UniProtKB/TrEMBL annotation:
A Pfam family of this chain: HisKA_2
The protein's name in its UniProt record: histidine kinase
Organism: Falsiroseomonas selenitidurans
Positions of the Histidine kinase domain: 149-349
Subcellular location: Membrane
Keywords: ATP-binding, Kinase, Membrane, Nucleotide-binding, Phosphoprotein, Transferase, Transmembrane, Transmembrane helix, Two-component regulatory system
Transmembrane segments: 65-82, 94-112
Catalytic activity: ATP + protein L-histidine = ADP + protein N-phospho-L-histidine
Length: 360
């Protein structure tokens, strides 16, 4: 119906003489049709004039509908109401029938005019909404471009900083200073890799969220390329597919980077072979991240083999996710008991506007 009214909008712009002339022709056509179908029978003298009134209201405006109503009433009274060929109304039922027809005709013309205005307003609002949506899409595209440029620049800056620290480390003779700078360089490079991985996910779906399985698989592949090199250590990933907001993926990725890095440094001395497995499991109310190896394990009574900074960073990142970091041997009593790190963090602690959904 709204399409019909919109197509008739051009008819409402016709000159007055054209609109009212066409209305007169419509009423005349209804009269001829009445004569052809029922002749001069007095039954239903006005009924077959209603199509002309409706057509005038749809095609033109309320004024033409009123004119069509009055003209139809006059013609019906003249031709079909006794005494015929007379406009006299001598009986109360005839007056009531005439008044009812006039009321229905005026109401129909008024209703059609209201529909014209409502549909016209709706069309204007749709056009406004389309323009607003186009503006929003344009703004979102511009913001996405700016965000992508910012992420690229930040990643490049991080990579340059990591390279600078590595070069600076080579100028120091003190082994502790070199180790500290190289460690700092490695952490900055890890943050750059994670940002790059997140940016690729954002470019793929345009959303500030990632699929946990694809993110961890890509991150561990990056770690394998960057840290394992030619060592006989195999890295594997087993992760459920869940949607994570990027604000949670960053600390999750940093934890994996720290724990895998610790395993590579301490679990397999003398280039021993081994494996490191990363897993993320979705439970009804929580996520469970595990990073385990089959290396020499950790002796609580032995002095620490490093500064412990990586573990402290991992614990702080786990707390940021709302969880805690725990460690335990994988196979107690064996020559190589291994070590399993576990972080359990709630699935429902996302911030405003963030979502955490499982995927099949």
């Amino acid at each position: 119906m709204d399409r019909i009214f919109m197509r008739m909008a051009a008819m409402r712009a016709l000159p007055v003489w054209a609109r009212y002339g066409a209305t007169a022709l419509l009423v005349l056509a209804c009269l001829l049709g009445r004569l052809a179908l029922l002749g001069h029978a007095t039954a239903m003298p006005y009924m077959l004039f209603m199509p002309g009134i409706i057509a005038a209201g749809v095609l033109f405006d309320r004024g033409t509908g009123f004119v069509a109503t009055v003209a139809s009433a006059g013609l019906g009274l003249w031709y079909f109401v006794p005494p015929q060929r007379s406009l006299a109304v001598t009986e109360l039922p005839v007056l009531f029938e005439l008044a009812t027809f006039l009321a229905i005709g005026f109401f129909t013309a008024t209703l059609l005019e209201a529909l014209h205005h409502a549909i016209s307003s709706l069309a204007s609002e749709r056009a406004e909404l389309s323009r607003a949506n186009a503006d929003l899409r344009s703004t979102a595209a511009e913001r996405g471009t700016l965000l992508s440029e910012s992420v690229h620049r930040a990643r490049n800056d991080l990579q340059r900083l990591a390279s600078t620290l590595r070069l600076k480390a080579g100028t120091y003779e003190d082994p502790a200073a070199r180790a500290a700078l190289n460690e700092a360089s490695g952490r900055i490079a890890a943050l750059a890799r994670i940002n790059g991985r997140l940016d690729r996910h954002r470019e793929e779906d345009g959303k500030a969220q990632v699929d946990s399985r694809g993110f961890l698989e890509g991150l561990v592949a990056d770690l394998e390329d960057a840290a394992v090199d030619m060592r006989p250590v195999a890295l594997s990933v087993l992760a459920d597919s869940s949607v994570l907001p990027m604000s949670r993926a960053v600390p999750l990725g940093l934890i994996v980077n720290e724990l895998v890095g610790n395993a590579l440094k301490y679990a397999f001395p003398d280039d021993a072979e081994g494996r490191i497995a990363v897993a993320l499991r979705r439970e009804p109310e929580a996520f469970v991240l595990t990073v385990e190896d089959d290396g020499i394990g950790a002796d609580p009574a032995a002095p620490p083999r490093g500064s412990g900074l990586g573990t402290r960073i991992s614990r702080a990142l786990a707390a940021q996710l709302g969880g805690k970091l725990h460690s335990a041997p994988v196979a107690p009593g064996r020559a190589r008991p291994g070590l399993r790190w576990t972080v359990r963090f709630p699935a429902g602690s996302a911030g405003p506007g963030e979502s955490l959904h499982s995927r099949p």
